[in-house]
Write a structure and sequence with these properties.
The complex is a heterodimer of chains A (about 240) and B (about 80).
Chain A: E1 8-13, H1 20-30, E2 34-39, E3 51-54, H2 75-84, E4 89-92, H3 94-101, E5 108-110, E6 118-126, E7 142-149, E8 153-155, H4 159-164, E9 168-173, E10 192-196, E11 202-205, H5 223-240
Chain B: E1 2-10, H1 17-28, E2 40-47, H2 52-67, E3 73-80
Antiparallel strand pairs in B: 1-2, 1-3
Classes of the chains: A alpha/beta (about 240), B alpha+beta (about 80).
Chain lengths: ~240, ~80
């Protein structure tokens, strides 16, 4: 199905995932990776997996809390081991909620302060420690990506510790990069749109980079996350020689 | 058999926009003097073969692991024999 040199990306599917096909299309057809689905009831990830994506959607109909039931799925043990080995994991929207609920990422996502399902383009500023999904993007760069969520209000009980550990990777801002209350679509603490774990290999964000990866869809800023990932793998491969 | 009633609410430090919206609606309906409205979740379950103290311990485990997200939520448990 692919040459061995293509990056192998596992996209986890839960009942109610609905951005799984979008993620597969962008990673496989647009970015040239070898993307495939892994069902949530599967016991393990394929051995040759290079990266895991937990896609957006409404896993288990958002029962109990967004991402809460999916976080207990059989495949998540394998994702936890995968993440523990330092390999890249990306959670998008509901995937971010799943990763927080599973303890792979710090904090939690609560109901939007607006009480609305916020569905529109927003701007986020790239910052924090270098992660596989952001290290090739200059710090401070502003990206435009769509959001589509009701439960995106990021909360952490010690946000200062998160900030000082450089774990805030994406922050809602205006078009010029200014972090203002008006630019914060959901009431997230500190305007936090995306965070990483302590070692930086697990990243989650509410905006949808896979919906901003082709110009026909109105923007390509989201591609920078996937280009960054490709570059981080090239660098790693180059370093081994 | 024991029966557990569990109430999960957002922590005090976490803004409760649903509670605020309900409060505003109550005020519009003429219910004066209402403040501090919090909206939560109610869960009821039966536990077979455990006494009340063991039941409480098990339900606490359930709350910490699944029923509540202790980053943002508090839980309150009532056990009935």
């Amino acid at each position: 199905m692919s040459s061995p040199s293509r990056l192998r990306v596992a996209i986890i599917q839960f009942p109610g995932s609905n951005c799984d096909d979008d993620a597969l299309h962008v990673l496989d057809k647009v970015m040239g990776m070898a993307a495939f689905f892994v069902w949530h009831k599967d016991g393990s990830l394929p051995d040759a997996t290079d990266m895991v994506v937990v896609p957006g959607g409404f896993s288990y109909g958002d029962y109990l809390r967004s991402g809460a039931i999916a976080a207990q799925s059989p495949i998540m043990d394998s994702v936890r081991t995968f993440a523990g080995s330092g390999k890249p994991v990306l959670g998008i929207c509901n995937g971010f909620q799943v990763l927080c609920e599973s303890g792979l990422l710090p904090g939690a996502l609560a109901r939007n302060a607006t009480l609305k399902f916020e569905c529109r383009d927003v701007f986020v500023r790239v910052e924090g420690m270098p992660t596989p999904f952001s290290s090739a993007i200059p710090a401070g760069r502003v990206l435009r990506m769509p959001i589509a969520h009701a439960d995106g209000r990021y909360f952490h009980d010690n946000v200062a510790s998160l900030e000082s550990a450089s774990q805030v990777v994406f922050r809602y801002c205006d078009h010029a990069g200014g972090v203002t209350p008006e630019a914060n679509p959901n009431g997230s603490l500190g305007g936090i749109a995306g965070v990483c774990n302590a070692s930086g290999n697990v990243v989650g964000l509410m905006p949808h980079p896979e919906r901003a990866s082709e110009s026909i869809l109105g923007g390509v800023d989201g591609r920078q996350l996937f280009e960054s990932l490709l570059m981080s793998f090239e660098k790693k491969a180059g370093g081994k020689q | 058999m024991s029966k557990a009633k569990i109430v999960v609410t957002l922590k005090r430090a976490v803004l409760d926009p649903q509670g605020r919206a309900v409060e505003q609606s109550l005020s519009r309906l003429g219910f004066d003097g209402v403040s501090d409205v919090r909206v939560g979740r109610f869960i009821e379950l039966k536990l077979n073969g455990v006494d009340a103290s063991a039941a409480r311990e098990r339900v606490e485990g359930m709350c910490k692991k699944l029923l509540a997200n202790t980053v943002i939520e508090d839980f309150h448990i009532e056990i009935e024999d």
